[in-house]
Design goal:
The longest helix has about 30 residues, at about 435-465. Among the domains are: about 590-805, Beta Polymerase, domain 2; about 815-965, Up-down Bundle (Four Helix Bundle (Hemerythrin (Met), subunit A)), CATH 1.20.120. Helix content is about 60%, strand content about 5%. It is mostly helical and about 950 residues long. The radius of gyration is 37 Å and the shape is elongated. Helix 8 runs antiparallel to helix 9 (about 145-170) and helix 35 crosses helix 36. Strand 2 (about 200-205), helix 12 and strand 3 form a beta-alpha-beta unit. Strands 1, 2, 3, 4 and 5 form a five-stranded mixed β-sheet that branches. Strands 6, 7, 8, 9 and 10 form a five-stranded mixed β-sheet that branches.
Amino acid sequence: MSRDIGLATRLIQAGLLEVSAGIETIENSDLIKLDPELLCQALAKSANPDQALKYLSRMNLDLVKDLDLTAMIFGSSAAFAEHLILYPEDLGVLHLDPPVNAVSLKDQFLTSTSEVDSTAALKRRYRRQVISLAARDLSSKSDFAHTSLELSWIADAVLETALEIAKAELPVEATHAMIAVIAMGKTGAQELNYISDVDVIFVAEPINGVSDEQAMSSATKICSTLMKICSEQTEDGTIWVVDAALRPEGKAGALVRPVASHVSYYQRWAQTWEFQALLKARAAAGDIELGERYCEAIQPFIWDASTRENFVDDTRRMRTRVESTIPDKVQGRELKLGKGGLRDIEFAIQLLQMVHGRSDESLRVPNTLQAISALAAGGYIGRVDATALVQAYTWLRTLEHRIQMQQMQRTHTLPTNEVELRSLGRSMEVLGEPAAGLNQAWEERAIQVRSLHQKLFYQPLLDAVAVLPTNSVRLGTKQALERLTALGYQDAAAALRHIESLTTGSQRRAAIQRTLLPVMLAWWADGPSPDVGLLAFRRLSEALGDTPWYLSSLRDDAQIAQRVATITSGSEFLVDLLLRAPESLALLADDEQLQPRDNAALQAEVDALIDRNIDDPVKSVGALRALRRRELVRTAAAVMLLNQPVDQTGKALTIVNSIVLDAALRVAVKSVEKQIGQSLPTKFAVMALGRFGGGELGFGSDLDVLFVHDPLPGVAETDATPAALAVATELRSLLMAPHPDPAIEIDADLRPEGKKGALVRSLDSYRAYYERWSITWESQALLRVEFGAGDPELMSRFIELVDLVRWPANGLSNEQIRDIRVLKARMESERLPKGADPSTHLKLGKGGLSDIEWAAQLMQLKFGYQHPQLRTTKTIEALQASAELKLISQADCNHLIEAWQNAANIRNALILALGKQQDQIPRDILELKKLSFVLGYPAGEPNLVVENYLKTARRAREVFERIFYDS
């Protein structure tokens, strides 16, 4: 072969990337003797022509009978190329006929046991057989289904041969027990990869009166030897890892058990995922009759699993756990476990089998492709969808094979290297540029699979209630109820009625709902209460009727649809707000809409509302309450959907309540002035206390306030006070009166003398009281006094007044500290509700909000006169200042802040989830699931809420006791 421009052109056309290096390789090897056209034709058929050329240059070409096929193997697998170069006599396996069946292949492999080094012979035969299969696979003489079947036959043959070798090494033990090797996973389903762990379970029974203990001990030695033969890396290489971790009790359990022991475990201890794994069980090697007895014994457990109490939670937890194991660096490239990958198909198909296989034995097949066919034949999935699933699964598994074949390494990750992607693209025969084309094809398949995954479960449920027949699969009512129950619906019949109602009515609405509901049903099934989600969605849909933007927004914007599903499934509070004004759903359109409103913009809107309804106080404050409801939707949705931090939530709620309160006060003043026929004879203000004053409001918080007035010059206090009282009364009436929108609860119980004292006092009256009668707890309450609403100058003067009370010169006396401690102890014993669990009561329990706030407030009362940094109404700021001043350690400060934020967050989440104020973490499992969902904990792990709370509260209580009682 001469070096000329023609060769370079041919190499480029063949797909070489390194043309100069390729020419040099040819010139420095026996390839120079070949016809360049034939060589380049062979290279062009390979996935990686550069790699194929490199390995061909190292080969004795006289032994190559089929250049095209050899180049194809060398370009697809460096591992196979290295083997054939090391053992060139094995080139003949490229032309072997496929095995007739699994039995004949086992017989061929068993001849290895007669050789001197039987293990080495087994490994060599295994590699030869896999290369022979790869040659047929790459040359399209074997499709995916047969390739994965034959790989499983090879695995069976290896297991059988390794078992015989192990018995030969342990002849005495071999007389003690019958042993069956049960193939699991892809081996059991006869859909194995080129390289994979081979999952097995070992079963044994005694022989000839041998004791159970002796039989199991001997069988364990033999099976351990079998595993070592297959898994151990030697100079002859390795085959694959034999993994027995799916056995009862996993790696902690006995390696070998008799059938009865397996059955006993599955009756008493097994988890749902173990029954799902048993779906693939198959007698593969050893005593096949014993293996089949085992498989027959476990069948009832598989098909009754979907009726287990925790079936849905267990399956969700398994899905979540699987997806959480994917490292960030391979997200979007994980063919097996990632979204739109193989697990999506396998999980969906297996779940459908377990749900419907209880009553339909035709579905009881372990192989995925066969299961898809059975589901389609039985009418459980549509034939069009079944075809799409088969195509997607076959394509993904073939791509997985091509990736693994290169180095014969266990991997399911699409590479990022451009050359590797190009080789894979060529091997998969994608259109266009191979690397880019492969990425695009994978992305399209992933989207398609994810869509099918959702559609498989939910579209047939719609068709089950359709008025007219459709082209889709049509489940019977019984089958639809089975599926809904398996998906977590407690009242499947009611759910089916809701679906029917949603998909009837106007043609346009029904058509859109039929598009929406399959994916919505999927999202609700992932929530804590699918029934609640579906019912809430029905109520919202009925409230909005045929409003054009509603359904079209959900149809056209997946984010809005998913957010609606999240809210309807997880938040009774938000659903209640939305039902009062469904147009607030528009806030879900994007993240920007969920951010707190600018103060100035909010104030301008409030002013406009008052001006528009100036002569009608009820209408004015009604409009203000509606505005507040909209802002509650905004803030609550931000917590649920964006995980908004609790301090931001408290700030947002405080701002909107302050602005609305101030505006409502103006309306109340106008109303009173109209009643008395003159301008108000006194200045009036509402001072904020408690969480309101601290800017720490939650969704269930009342507004703690003090009402203060100051008569105008020349007006007697006796004349001014009735007018001020009328304003306070009118304000409370307007804000707390029955109305479609939530009331704003005004609580003035922290006023001097409590509920027995005057509702409204003048500034001078407050001054006189605090100078003469104030007790320690009132000083503590005044720590959180802040501007609320009304006259700014009066509020400033009130702050000046209470500063003298809350920041007393020289801090607290020992007697005052003792009073505070006694009061705290009395609160713990008297105010905790009867039957409450102090360990999980968020407000008054050990390590709860009260402990943390009282610890911070004690620091403020003791040292606030000395350190201005402590003069704040905010709990976290007070704790941080205490740490900066070395009054407490930074570690203690961090523990208290973490516990306070956790408790406040749970408190808000309880309101969102259950729609009612409560301070006790619920014991009811459904309520706990709802709470867990709002807090963003993994599905199926509701107890993590309690565990994490107990951990933070315990640390906080330890710190509190040191600060509060030991300082």
